[in-house]
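Consider the tokenized backbone below.
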């Protein structure tokens, strides 16, 4: 894989922060990236949550992601009538995931609320390994 460019929007103080993974070929970018798989769920999209579930389990079965931690952002929590974290957890059958560490975090990407907590979970996971 060539240069990987991952953008994480943090809108604290209305600033955008970017995470960029760059390195020469064979440096280990993909291996580092595969330590985490971040899934973003649109909490307002009840109709397609089953598609997310299918894709999630296909992805977790992939050999390259065997050791990956799973961070799920339940985004758009600012929208009235959105699915709660509990509902999404149930739809995605998260408690059945035994072979990956996982965490679901409510967030609103527009304001940045919840993003920091999700990233803190990722960091704490690295520390205890
Ligand atoms: N209300 C609300 N809208 C959001 C939130 N996050 C993103 N949006 C809106 O949802 C739409 C899609 O957001 P994007 O960040 O472009 O989503 P994406 O996953 O990159 O979309 P693709 O490029 O189509 O894959 C935009 O209109 C955003 O403004 C949120 O937390 N709350």
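A designed sequence for it:
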């Amino acid at each position: 894989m060539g240069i990987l460019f991952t953008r994480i929007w943090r809108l604290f103080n209305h600033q955008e922060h970017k995470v960029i993974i760059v390195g020469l070929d064979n440096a280990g970018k993909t291996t580092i990236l595969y330590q985490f798989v971040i899934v973003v769920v649109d909490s307002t999209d009840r109709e397609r949550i089953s598609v997310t579930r299918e894709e999630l389990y296909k992805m977790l079965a992939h050999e390259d992601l065997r050791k990956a931690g799973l961070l799920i952002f339940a985004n758009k929590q600012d929208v009235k009538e959105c699915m709660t974290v509990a509902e999404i957890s149930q739809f995605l059958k998260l408690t059945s995931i035994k072979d990956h560490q996982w965490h679901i975090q409510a967030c609103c990407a527009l304001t940045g609320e919840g993003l920091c907590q999700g990233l803190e979970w990722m960091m704490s996971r690295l520390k205890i390994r």
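The first helix runs from residue 29 to 33.
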